[in-house]
Specification:
globular, six-stranded antiparallel sheet, six-stranded mixed sheet, Transposase_put_HTH, 9 helices, 14 strands, 384 residues, alpha+beta
């Protein structure tokens, strides 16, 4: 099976300059392809493939204007063109929105380095050999396995830090998995992140004091940045210091990155706890997150819970350990069914946190009742 490992890297000044140049070139080529493909479609009515654009870029455009494009890795530039080509194809298929230009401040562009020679992407305890960059030091020692076959790597930049994602081929762990229980039903929500049928509850980390303090600090820094824009709106270009504004933007980026890392790490912790229980199957619900986001009072709280990331990471771990992942329909009334007698309570409101059955009279927590119904659901779709 293929598995990716992502960790932070420590670059020298020369490597940092070379990598910034590569990322900047990839962003420039991607935006150039998007603009050229738009004009080509308006004139001819057909899509400009990435292969045709690459030939025009190397044979015509580089010789006329920008020779510095060939100063960086050609594979990284080629991958940036293919990313733009894939974005247009997904748009024509109706899978994504229209491709937009990449901005430098968003830091969404990554540098791709494949393994061309046997000496490329060699992994040691504290370093990895990246094409055109040489040996790069890893911040976390021993995180990338030595015995794995490395296929490619991608280097990204976020909040003045650099991360490397390595794609490796490894042996599957399915033979190590021995089920210890029948199954687990997992009900995710806003009051608590997850309530499981085996009497394990995971709190909403966004309600903790640590997250609230970071959000309060982020709001204060955001207001400071906003005042900087307002004060310099009517000034001339040379009358204000752009370096101070860049420092403030970097402070905000670090706070955003820290909050994102804390939330995603908590999701990974919950998923690992579910997998370590060694169930025969795990049942989740297909949530309509896009429809839930239309409620402006709950949109922010729903976004912070990372429901989509929870589902994707749980799917990866279930495939890795050979656990069957089941998903019931979004119209399955998991909260309105009685887990004891099966009676349905249609008039259950969202404010009722305790489920009281009208038929058998059982009183049970609403979320725990939903997790039991998910565990014993008979109509589901297997995702693994």
């Amino acid at each position: 099976m293929k598995r990716a490992f992502k960790t932070e890297i420590m670059l020298t000044d020369t490597q940092r300059q070379k990598l910034n140049q590569t990322i900047g070139t990839c962003r420039y080529v991607y935006n150039l392809y998007v603009a050229t493909a738009q004009n080509h479609y308006k004139e001819t009515g057909s899509h400009l493939s990435g292969y045709d654009f690459s030939k025009w870029l190397n044979n015509v455009y580089v010789k006329e204007k920008d020779i510095w494009i060939k100063d960086v890795s050609s594979k990284a530039v080629k991958q940036a063109i293919m990313n733009g080509d894939r974005a247009f194809k997904n748009f024509f298929k109706g899978l994504a929105k229209f491709p937009r230009f990449k901005k430098k401040k968003d830091q969404h562009v990554k540098a791709y380095f494949p393994k061309n020679n046997k000496t490329d992407l060699l992994v040691e305890r504290h370093r990895i050999k990246v094409p055109t960059l040489g040996w790069v030091r890893l911040k976390e020692y021993g995180y990338i396995p030595y015995d794995a076959v490395v296929k490619s790597c991608t280097i990204s930049q976020k909040a003045d830090r650099y991360y490397i994602s390595v794609l490796c081929e490894m042996a599957s762990r399915q033979a190590e998995h021995l089920p210890e229980m029948n199954g687990i039903g997992v009900d995710v929500g806003l009051k608590q992140f997850a309530v499981c049928s085996h009497h394990r509850d995971y709190e909403n980390i966004n309600k903790t004091s640590k997250i609230k303090k970071l959000e309060k600090r982020m709001k204060r820094q955001q207001r400071k940045l906003s005042r900087s824009y307002e004060q310099n709106k009517n000034r001339k270009r040379g009358e204000f210091c752009a370096k101070n504004r860049q420092k403030q933007i970097l402070r905000l980026q670090k706070l955003h990155a820290r909050l994102t890392n804390i939330r995603k790490e908590y999701v990974r912790f919950v998923v690992n706890q579910l997998v370590k229980a060694k169930p025969a199957y795990i049942t989740i619900e297909d949530l309509n997150v896009k429809g839930m986001m239309k409620n402006r009072h709950l949109a922010k709280a729903i976004t912070q819970q990372n429901f989509f990331y929870f589902k994707e990471y749980l799917l990866v771990k279930c495939i890795e350990y050979g656990i069957e992942l089941r998903q019931v329909s979004r119209f399955y009334p998991s909260s309105k069914l009685c887990s004891c007698c099966g009676a349905k309570k249609s008039n259950l409101s969202l404010s009722e946190r305790t489920f009281v059955c009208d038929e058998c009279g059982i009183e049970i927590d609403r979320d725990f009742n939903a997790s039991l119904n998910l565990k014993y659901a008979t109509e589901y779709k297997v995702l693994t």
